[in-house]
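Person: Show me a sequence?

Helper:
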Amino acid sequence: MRRFWTNAARWGFWQEDGGQDLVEYALLAGFVAVAGAAAFPPAAQSISSIFSRVQSVLSQAGA
């Protein structure tokens, strides 16, 4: 087990932040969608249905 921790420290395993960009882009897309729905109310129903579909796909993937 000590060998694992030594190798992980040497390779910089804990310093990887590659997935961080994806989370930031997803948050930005969510903020843009909410702002678009607030600025253009007829689009609110369409945006709501998109988020509902995404939520159902994510819940099926987690099951």
Observations:
- Residues 19-62 form one domain.
- The helical segments are 2-11, 20-39, 44-62.
- The mean pLDDT is 77.
